[in-house]
Automatic annotation (TrEMBL):
Organism the protein comes from: Rhodobium orientis
Domain Extradiol ring-cleavage dioxygenase class III enzyme subunit B: 8-269
Transmembrane domains' residue ranges: none
Superkingdom of source: Bacteria
Protein name in UniProt: Protocatechuate 3,4-dioxygenase
Lineage: Bacteria, Pseudomonadati, Pseudomonadota, Alphaproteobacteria, Hyphomicrobiales
GO MF, one example: ferrous iron binding
Alphabetical keyword list: Dioxygenase, Oxidoreductase
Pfam family, one: LigB
Amino acid sequence: MARIVGGLTTSHIPAIGNAIARKMFEDPYWKPFFDGYPPVREWLDEVKPDVAVVIYNDHGLNFFLDKQPTFAIGAAPEYRNDDEGWGIPTIAPFKGDPAFSWHLIDNLVHDDFDLVTCQEMLVDHGFTVPMQLFWPNYADIGIKTVPLVINTVQHPLPSPRRCYNLGKSLGKAIESYPEDLKVVILGTGGLSHQLDGQRAGFINKTFDRMCMEKIVDDPEHFLDMSIRDLVVEAGAQGAEFILWLAMRGALTGKVTARHSNYHIPISNTASGLLCLENAA
Ligand code: DHB
Ligand code: FE
């Protein structure tokens, strides 16, 4: 049976993709950020997951404001990136696992989560940047992926509770898959940031620290928050924290934080890195 080995969170900002392309790992601005990742890569080298389910938000590459699903999932053999206008060079495609995707779709729809199913799907920086950070050699090792998109772009957004419950359903679905796959779940984006309006550049370190602590042992702390509460505390784009909550909902066992790093700012964003191990 498939097993959930853990959950990872990371910021996904496009500037990271640029810094990776330019190999700016030792640059004084970037070093404290990139230095957070080697311990997580060591953990991944140890655990060797077969599949990554990547919970992220599409920012306008695959879906735009004319058609914006609340939840969408990939069921394609391969996922490509495309030019989003950030100056990031196009990178190698990511492998999919259609059979596993369809198993997840069957189970999630059965649990009343009506996902848009995508047999063709472009993946944007919300997906590609975290994949590159955790698996710089993803194309060589051939790790398989399932992109799972939650709308954080066009209101109304799904509530923290609904995203956490989607995660729970996802966790159950993964563990009922008959193949012996080791699955890691990513929740990308966050932490506090606001890119537009009068509060552009807003960062809330106190709230971020609380999020990084409580999501480990007490994720239900967030379930009565509204999207508006999240926006007030974490900024308009800090609402991406719902992606972390969906990831956390999918961790079914005893959860331990193996590594964490918090760094402010990169671009306009507080970066939060977490490696959560999920023991049966
Ligand atoms: C930035 C942050 C994001 O979450 C994003 O999707 C794009 C840009 C930023 O801080 O630059
Ligand atoms: Fe984002």
